[in-house]
Design brief:
The complex is a heterodimer of chains A (450) and B (253). With 450 residues, chain A is mainly alpha-helical. Chain A is built from 14 helices and 4 strands. Chain A is globular and about 70 Å long. Chain B is built from 10 helices and no strands. Classes of the chains: A mainly alpha (450), B mainly alpha (253).
Chain lengths: 450, 253
């Protein structure tokens, strides 16, 4: 029995979509809606519970078994509270902004594949609401509409904290969206398509790489094959959803609540929370679809023939979703918030250039694998680029090295001078004759003498 | 059928949004109306079998360009309204001329589309195997030069904007270490007490002050005070000396 290459049933492709009767589409849409609503409730509970275990406390444990009904209680409370409308806000936008945040978050989930073809009330249909030739771009598009909600929340609140939070958030999301879009490019190059169902199908079987007569089986999940892309995506998905360590738009220490400062704990606030959680689930689901083989079972399970057919894959998808979401919580429990200039510098000066270099590398490898490629041209171009890169690196490395040495010499000279003139203060330690009421000649009070 | 319904619904939405864009006095509302127009356009593209164009329209125009506009408008201020003074001479006349010219162009384009037989997308997309591959093939083969030139132009513009607004730093930015060294070298004290505290020192042997400037007996360090009483070394400040004695007396009771 061949353990590595079990027979792979073909998943649905683009051609399988657009054939559903209307009522099937309605069932799927309602399912996604209900699923996301329940996920938000469960997600809030799970986040509070897990992070409290990580911080050595119990977390919610009053409402229901294990505190499971805590989210229900919170939701009921938010529904029953008075909906405050501050007098100076821009009433129209203040009301509309949370809706603008939530609706695209839900819409982005419509292209997430939950499973393969199943028979639903006698109709053969893929477990996915719809698919587009540009499905992954659709997720990016929905994310960029969602930012409007955040920006407008900040602007319409007419409060400095809210405006600053909104501005920060929009700048952050727009910048990290570029790095995010670039981290998809490697996947597109390997899968050869932008449709989510076909990307999942492309990860069913890694294929082999014929090199020098040997055939090396390639891993099928893109997380292994394209690990730099995945790492960059993992960072950008934290930035894109305003989560720790990139949650500066709502940094409590400096901005109170950021863009949601003026929203009291009413239904509007509930909408904002829901939008944020749904965004987290969306980016998690996209990471699963693009890098973790989508609904396909991981290796030991995939040896079972029935693992990737019927309704079972939905379970694998949910398990993966819970695991990715747990990583969000883990990150939140482990990392401190970074500074805003560090955030921007990291996005623009590290993530994007790294991504571009990695895309060049991936494209070169892909070019080698094209059947009738002119290898000579590719080799020459690659050599030129490599030599150029080394030249630039060498040049800047020597410049930086010289600069570092100059700086070190400067510091050394300053220390020399300080050593020679004790009256200049010597090394920076507090002076001994600070204006305490004893003066400098007071004898020390040894410890343990009382 | 679906296309027709979508068109008429979006026609109403986008035309009213466009009117709102022109007629609204609030800059942020204008920007939002423009966003609605762009979104309607994107949906129209999607309905007309151009999904890639639709997605790019939303990502680039609605997501990036409009967000930039909105950003600037929000920074400008909440209640700033347009100045209605006409600064260009003969502004209205030339605006009418340009408008008429645009109307003629629009009429010709629509007439061309209505009168000539439709070519259809199928022929263009089927040979390449889909909408996205067909676009990619054209962009990276036939139009690759124009594409690269356009991107070079954009990069040049971005670089120019950065160079023109760049301000050279004359002195190096002081690091935290340099600041600390400078503070100690100029004889400044150690860390000062936090805000909202009456004390002027945060040393262990300096008691806190009450709002009227007198010493708070509660804050006299009993350990140090006992040594002071034993050695009979009191500070010059009589109030502080009194406080130290009292502290030791109270403890010995």
């Amino acid at each position: 029995m061949n353990l590595m290459l079990a027979p792979v049933p073909a998943g649905p492709s683009l051609a399988d979509f657009g054939k559903d009767p209307l009522w099937i589409s309605i069932i799927k849409a309602v399912f996604i809606f209900v699923f996301l609503l329940l996920s938000v409730m469960f997600g809030v509970w799970m986040e509070r519970k897990l992070i409290s275990r990580m911080q050595n406390r119990y977390g919610p444990n009053r409402a229901g078994k294990f505190g499971l009904l805590q989210s229900v209680a919170d939701a009921v409370k938010m529904g029953l509270k008075e909906d405050l409308l501050p007098r100076t806000v821009d009433k129209v936008l203040y009301t509309v902004a949370p809706i603008i945040l939530v609706v695209p978050a839900f819409m982005a989930f419509s292209i997430i594949p939950f499973g393969p073809m199943v028979s639903m009330f006698g109709v053969e249909t893929p477990l996915q609401l719809t698919d587009l030739p540009v499905a992954v771009l659709f997720v990016l598009a929905m994310a960029s509409i969602g930012v409007y909600g955040i920006v407008l929340m900040g602007w319409s609140s007419r409060s400095p904290y809210a405006v600053l939070g909104g501005l920060r958030s929009s700048a952050q999301v727009v910048s990290y969206e570029i790095a995010m879009g670039l981290s998809f490019v490697g996947v597109f190059l390997f899968a050869g398509t932008l449709s989510t169902s076909e990307i999942v199908a492309a990860q069913a079987d890694g294929g082999t790489w014929e090199i020098a007569g040997l055939s090396i089986p390639l891993p099928s999940w893109y997380v292994v094959l394209l690990i730099p892309s995945f790492l960059i995506y993992a960072i950008t998905m934290l930035g894109e959803t305003n989560r720790v360590p990139f949650d500066l738009p709502e940094g409590e220490g400096e901005l109170v609540g950021g863009y949601q400062t003026e929203y009291s704990s009413s239904l509007k606030f509930a909408l904002i929370q829901m939008g944020e959680y749904v965004n987290v689930f969306t980016v998690s689901a996209v990471s699963i679809t693009l890098f973790f083989g989508g609904w396909r079972a991981p290796w030991p399970i995939s040896m079972w023939d029935g693992a990737n057919v019927g309704w079972w894959p939905m379970l694998w998808f949910f398990i993966k979703l819970v695991l990715v979401f747990s990583c969000f919580i883990w990150v939140r429990a482990s990392l401190p918030r970074i500074r805003y200039d560090q955030l921007m510098a990291f996005g623009w000066k590290v993530l994007i250039p790294l991504n571009l270099a990695w895309i060049m590398l991936v494209a070169t490898v892909r070019a080698f694998r094209v059947e009738d490629a002119n290898r000579g041209v590719i080799f020459t171009l690659a050599a030129i680029v490599l030599i150029g890169c080394f030249g630039i690196w060498f040049r800047f490395d020597t410049v930086l090295q010289r600069r570092r040495e100059n700086r070190a010499a400067e510091v050394e000279a300053e220390f020399e001078q300080l050593r020679d003139e004790p009256e200049a203060g010597g090394f920076p330690v507090p002076p001994l004759d600070l204006p305490h009421y004893h003066g400098a000649d007071r004898k020390e009070v040894p410890s343990g003498s009382n | 059928m679906g296309e027709t319904i979508t068109f008429w619904v979006l026609a109403v939405v986008s035309v009213s949004a466009a009117l709102g864009l022109v007629l609204s006095r609030r800059a942020v509302y204008c920007a939002l109306m423009l966003g609605v127009v762009m979104l309607s356009l994107a949906v129209l593209y999607a309905v007309q079998d151009a999904p890639f164009l639709a997605a790019v329209q939303i990502v680039v125009y609605t997501g990036a360009v409009m967000m930039l506009f909105l950003f600037v408008l929000m920074l400008v201020g909440v209640d700033s309204s347009d100045s209605l003074v006409e600064t260009i001479k003969g502004q209205r006349f030339w605006a009418i001329v340009a408008g008429a010219g645009f109307a003629v162009l629009l009429g010709l384009a629509v007439g061309n589309a209505v009168l000539s037989p439709p070519a259809g997308l199928l022929g263009a997309t089927q040979t390449a195997g889909g909408n996205v591959p067909a676009l990619a093939q054209l962009i990276f083969t036939r139009h690759v030069f124009a594409f690269e030139v356009a991107s070079a132009l954009l990069i040049t513009a971005a670089l120019a904007a950065m160079v023109l607004t760049h301000r050279e730093r004359l002195t190096e930015k002081p690091t935290q270490r340099a600041l600390a060294r400078a503070r100690f070298l100029t004889g400044g004290s150690v860390v000062l007490p936090g805000p909202g505290v009456y004390a002027r020192h945060n040393a262990n042997d300096m008691p806190a002050l009450l709002p009227d400037g007198s010493v708070s007996e509660l804050s006299v360090n009993r350990v140090i005070a006992r040594h002071d009483v034993e050695d009979e070394r009191f500070p010059d400040d009589p109030k502080l000396a009194e406080a130290i004695k009292q502290a030791v007396e109270e403890e010995s009771k």
